[in-house]
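Supplementary notes (optional reading)

For those who missed the lab, this is the record we used. Protein: Aquaporin-11. Length: 239 residues.
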Amino acid sequence: ASLLLMASIMLTVGLCRRLTRRRLRSHQRLCIFLLEMFSTFQICACTNELCLLSNVEPKPHTALTLTYGFTVLHGLTLTGSTCNPCGTLQPMWGGGISVKMGGLKIGAQFMAAVLARMFMHFIWSLEMAEPHFGALSQSCGNPMQTTELQAFCIELLFSVVFQLTILRVESVNPKYKVHLIALLITMLVYAGGNLTGAIFNPALAFSLHANCFYDKFLSYSLVYWIAPSLGKFLILYVS
C-alpha cells in the first residue's frame, strides 16, 4: 500500500507538471512557482512515507533500496527543478536567476513542504496500511541522535559532499548522472541516517520534522537550515 501510495503521488505530480507547462507557459513566474512546488511536494511526501518504512525487515537493506530506487525516480521525473533551497542559492549567487526569482522558488519549496506534511498526515489518519498505525501519535521524531555540534558538522559535511558531487557530474550523461546522485544519497543516508537523518535539504527537513522545529527551533534551524546552507556557500566560494 505504501509503494502504491508513492507511485500515485508521482503519477499525479507528473500530470500536474505537464498541465502547468501546457496551460501556463505564457505566465512564466506562476509556471516556475507551480513546477517547483509540485516537484518539492513529490519529494517531501514520498520521503515522509519512506521514513515510516525505515524499520521494515530486513534492516537497513529495505530502506536503503527504497531510498535508492525512489531517488532515481525523482531524478528522472523532476528534471529542471531543484527541490532544495540550497540548490537554488547557486544560480542566485552566479547571477543565473534574480534574487526575486530565487525567493519565489524557495517560497514554493517551503510551501510544498508544509502541504506535503498536511497531506501525509491526512493519509496516515485513514490508516490504510500497517505502517500508518500510530504515525500521528509522534510529536517530535527527534532525528538528532547525537550532540548539536556533531549534528551540525555532519549536515555541513554531507551538504558539502553532495553539492560538490552535483558540480562534478554536471557533464555526465543524464542517464548515468541520476544513478550516481542516487547512489551518493543512499551512501550518505547509510553513513549518517541514524545520527541526523542525513537530510541536507532545509525544506525537506521542515516537512519531515516540523514539530521538532516548533519545540527546539534554534537547535533544529542551526542543524537543518544553517548547516546545509553554509555548506553550499563554502562550495560556491571555493569553486
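If you only remember one thing from this example: Residues 99-126 form the longest helix (28 residues).
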